[in-house]
């Protein structure tokens, strides 16, 4: 509940009215990823591989959990892809392979709150350390 109250404080009266007009409750504002003005830094994201048997994992130099500081989920996926995607030889007989970090079916992404990771700092991979 404290997080909700903090988010509500970050919503301008105009935004609150727009949400209400669209049929949303102010309580739904957190679903829109509005960050409280008083909360500096960026969210911390945990990217967890889902299916390591998929041949697309041949296109990654890392196949474990990744912790990333980024402004949003797509940015977290891009940062992981930049850090770990590798080129593979394409064999038409085996079908297409795409690097896994940007694929929701292969990597689950969730925002985490863990004191070990600072919200302040540049967008980057925090774990594994590179």
Structural commentary:
The structure is a single chain. This protein is α+β, with helices and mostly antiparallel strands and 130 residues long. The chain has 2 domains: 31 residues, no CATH class; 84 residues, no CATH class. It is built from 3 helices and 4 strands, in the order ααββαββ. A 4-stranded antiparallel β-sheet has the order 3-1-2-4, with helices on one face. The chain starts with a helix and ends with a strand.
Key terms:
130 residues; alpha+beta; 2 domains; four-stranded antiparallel sheet; 15% strand; elongated
Radius of gyration: 18 Å
- Portion of residues in beta strands equals 15-25%
Strand order of the largest sheet: 3-1-2-4
Contiguous runs where pLDDT drops below 50 for at least 5 residues:
1-11, 24-39
Largest sheet composition: 4 strands, antiparallel
Mean pLDDT: 77
Count of individual beta strands: 4
Q: Assign the structural class, choosing from mainly alpha, mainly beta, alpha/beta, alpha+beta, or little secondary structure.
A: alpha+beta
Q: What is the H-and-E element order?
A: HHEEHEE
Q: Alpha-carbon distance between the termini?
A: 37 Å
Q: What helical percentage do the residues reach?
A: 10-25%
Tertiary shape: elongated
Total tally of structural domains: 2
Helix count equals 3
SSE blueprint:
Blueprint (H helix, E strand, L loop, with lengths): L1 H9 L2 H9 L22 E6 L16 E4 L3 H12 L22 E6 L11 E4 L3
Antiparallel strand pairs: 1-2, 1-3, 2-4
């Amino acid at each position: 509940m404290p997080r909700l109250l903090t988010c509500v404080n970050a919503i301008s009266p105009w935004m609150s009215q727009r949400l209400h007009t669209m049929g949303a409750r102010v309580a739904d504002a957190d679903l829109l990823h509005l960050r409280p003005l008083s909360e500096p830094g960026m969210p911390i994201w945990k990217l967890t591989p889902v299916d390591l048997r998929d041949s697309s994992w041949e296109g990654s130099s890392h196949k474990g959990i990744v912790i990333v500081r980024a402004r949003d989920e797509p940015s977290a996926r891009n940062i992981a892809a930049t850090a770990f995607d590798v080129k593979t030889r394409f064999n038409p007989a085996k079908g297409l392979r795409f690097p896994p970090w940007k694929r929701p079916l292969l990597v689950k992404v969730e925002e985490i709150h863990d004191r070990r990771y600072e919200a302040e700092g540049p967008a980057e991979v925090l774990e594994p350390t590179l």
